Amino acid sequence: AQPDEADAPTWPAETAESYRRAGYWAGRTFGAQLRDLAAAHADRTAVVDADRRMTYAELDRAVDALAAGLRGLGLQRGDTVVLQLPNGADFVVTWFALQRLGVVPVHALPGHRAAEITHLAALSGAVAHIVPDVHARFDYRELAATVRAQVPGVRHVVVAGEPGGRDGAVALGDLPEPGTGPIEDAPSSSDVALLLLSGGTTGVPKLIPRTHDDYAYNALAAARICGLDADSVYLAVLPVAFNFTMSCPGLLGVLAVGGTAVLSGSPDPSTTFPLIERERVTITALNPPLTPVWIEEARRTSHDLSSLQVVQIGSARLADEIAPLVEPALGATLQQVFGMAEGLLNLTLLDDPDELKYTTQGRPISPADEIRVVDTDGHDVPPGEAGELLTRGPYTLRGYYRAPEHNARSFTADGFYRTGDVVRQLPTGHLNVVGRVKDQINRGGEKIAATEVEGHLLAHPGIAAAAVVGTPDERFGERSVAFLVCRDEPVGKVAVARHLRALGVAQYKHPDQVELVDALPLTPVGKIDKNALRERLVSA
Ligand code: J2J
Question: Which regions of the chain are under pLDDT 50?
Fold first, then answer.
């Protein structure tokens, strides 16, 4: 069944009605939207990857066929599955097939391993895990077997590629066909369509419920601001499961206007530049660590990037010194993007003056986005001063999935989400991200919840106490540092990495640096003093 209000808190009825009346929520599910698109743009190219191209009509038919196969496995409306596919046409076909059935994908990332996936599968009650066979030299069938053994609810492993003869694993291209009659229990546009991963501040990752109505609006509003139309070609460079790449405007935004989505298997210029040249890509999205790599490579090589009109950069703060270098090197307008899987999306406008494009992180995309900037007591700060950003609106969550206690802390009584970001708002409405009050490390756009990693570190028998903090880093903006108090033998960086790998913790969460200390500094109230630890690193 669909998650109910206790599982996934939603907007008050009057608020929802006002979003519908204002036309933000269109009342179409993603499955139905693709049907409309296939009628309007049948022979136009919808999806391209390294070895496939599909028109809208072909995509629509492939989605129907796969939906039938997934129904044959027993999947139905309200079920959840862990979707862990890399960038490629299979992701797109599978995602829309799930949408047509009303089956809710959990957007796992290719980098996640057993620790993350077992948690996501158990929390969401997933009945299936959908994986590639081998990707980036990692065998996902082994990961899936581990997860299935640990989470009994996961009945099916569906493999895009070779299933490899494992018990219970079935190929995406080889599902039973139950006949293709109409789906009796079709989803509604107010249903939860997908569960995104939160960057996290707690011991275990949280899930973000997004409805068809709110997520489709997010994608379309972003597409309009980026000036997308049926001639636009979007290149997915970062993982497509990431909210930025998926819908800001991303895959869903470019498809919503009849354009083409090109999915790159790698973010490296040696893969992406030839794709830009061949497919005449008009818009793409990068994170800050990739930006200097692309700039360098564009200066060094002679690929024809002239089709590029917009390069979006977001997920972590773009350095003010780098921002002015983007347009001359890549020949495209820079757009800064400050978004979050929880909802609120800020974009600079393509015709903003350079000052705003180069130094701000954009402004909210919807006239219905409500913004507050507050001090530590929750009072609004004077205009232009820094404070924590609170927000609510037509595509910002009202509560995490199955997390009532966490929700009580993460939202105000009147439904504003506490972002944990410290911002300043300019008179133009643009936001400047100046800091953070959440216990999270932003490693070049990849979010690391300190408490989560500390929990894993404490599972090591030789570690008595652990604190993870971020420190400025040339390449990533921030890197993660673990301060450890060891019992007898010192546990160094290599031993830490071995331990975390054995637990199945994604590589990006492994500390970049390990510092062994005799004791952790405490605040007057007895909490670990992370500010003192950060200061030690900076003054060292
Ligand atoms: C500083 N911090 C930023 C920016 C995100 C588009 C783009 C990014 C994300 C994303 C996203 C930042 N400058 N330009 O979902 O749709 C930090 C903030 C924010 C957190 C959200 C999208 N852009 N951030 O990064 O859910 O701290 O989403 O709250 O992964 O990233 O992280 P996440």
Answer: none
